[in-house]
Write a structure and sequence with these properties.
With about 260 residues, the protein is mostly helical. Helix content is about 80%, strand content about 0%. A two-stranded antiparallel sheet has the order 1-2.
Length: about 260
C-alpha cells in the first residue's frame, strides 16, 4: 500500500511538472484550437519556424546564453576562494561574512535593482552588457558560494598536503587534486548560476535600460501582447537550453560518480 501511494504521488508530481510543457507544445504547434475542443483541429510549424527566423529572437537567445555562461564562469571564479575559506576555516566574523554574502537574497530584488541602477548610471555602466553581467552576479554569487562551501565543508586538505610533500607545485596541486575532488560541486554551482542568470528579467530591464534584449525580456513582451501561440513558442525556446544543460549535467555527474567508484 505504501509503495502504491509513492507511485501515485510520483505520477502526480511528474504530471504537474510536465503539464505546462505539454500545453506549450500544443499551443506552439497548433493553428486552430477553440474551446471546448480538447485538442487543436489543425497543426502547423509555422509559428515556431517564424520565431526561429526572427532576428530579435535569435539575438535574444544568443545574448541570454552568452550572459548566463559568462556569469556562471565569473561566479565560480569569484565565489571559489570565498567558499573555500568559509567551508574550511573558522574565524572571527565568519557569521557576518555569511550575512553579507546572502544579503542580496533577502533584500527585495526591486530595491537591489534600483540601487544598482543608480550606481551604474553614475559609473556609465547602465545600458551596457558589462553592467548587466555585473548585475547578474549579485543574485548568483550567494548560491554559488553556498553550494561550494558545502562541498569544502566535507573536503579533506590532507590530499593537498600529501601532494605538496611529494614535490608537486601549488598550481599542479590545484588542477590535479583540488579541482578533481570538487569538480562535481563546481558543475552544480555553475548550473545554479546559469539558471539564475538565464531567468533574470528585472535586473536586465533596470540595468540594460531596454538596450540589452534577452530572451526573458522578449517573453515578457510577448505575454503582454496576449497571443498564446507566440507565448507558447517563446516559452519552449526559453526552457529548452536549461533542460538540455540540466540533462547533460546530470548525465555527466552520474558518469563521473561511476568512474570515481571504479577507481576506488
Amino acid at each position: 500500500m505504501k509503495n502504491l501511494t509513492i507511485v501515485i504521488f510520483r505520477i502526480f508530481l511528474y504530471g504537474i511538472l510536465i503539464a505546462p510543457m505539454v500545453l506549450f507544445m500544443l499551443y506552439a504547434f497548433s493553428e486552430r484550437w477553440f474551446f471546448p475542443a480538447p485538442l487543436p483541429t489543425s497543426w502547423t510549424t509555422n509559428i515556431v519556424t517564424r520565431m526561429l527566423n526572427d532576428p530579435r529572437t535569435t539575438s535574444g537567445l544568443f545574448i541570454s546564453i552568452g550572459i548566463a555562461m559568462l556569469v556562471s564562469f565569473l561566479s565560480l571564479l569569484i565565489g571559489f576562494p570565498a567558499a573555500r575559506t568559509l567551508g574550511l576555516r573558522t574565524f572571527r566574523g565568519r557569521q557576518i561574512a555569511w550575512l553579507i554574502f546572502f544579503l542580496p537574497t533577502v533584500v527585495p530584488p526591486l530595491a537591489v535593482g534600483m540601487g544598482l541602477n543608480i550606481l551604474f548610471l553614475r559609473l556609465g555602466w547602465s545600458g551596457t552588457l558589462f553592467g548587466v553581467i555585473l548585475a547578474h552576479l549579485v543574485p548568483t554569487l550567494p548560491y554559488t558560494i553556498f553550494t561550494l562551501s558545502g562541498v569544502f565543508s566535507r573536503y579533506d586538505e590532507n590530499y593537498e598536503h600529501q601532494a605538496l610533500v611529494l614535490g608537486s607545485s601549488r598550481l599542479r596541486i590545484f588542477f590535479t587534486v583540488t579541482l578533481r575532488l570538487v569538480f562535481p560541486g563546481l558543475i552544480v554551482a555553475a548550473l545554479f548560476a546559469f539558471l539564475i542568470s538565464w531567468s533574470q528579467y528585472l535586473l536586465t530591464l533596470l540595468i540594460g535600460g531596454g538596450k540589452i534584449l534577452t530572451l526573458p525580456m522578449l517573453l515578457f513582451s510577448a505575454v503582454s501582447g496576449g497571443n498564446p501561440t507566440s507565448i507558447a513558442a517563446l516559452s519552449l525556446l526559453f526552457v529548452a537550453p536549461p533542460v538540455i544543460i540540466i540533462a547533460a549535467s546530470a548525465r555527466f555527474l552520474v558518469q563521473h560518480g561511476n568512474t570515481i567508484r571504479e577507481q576506488y
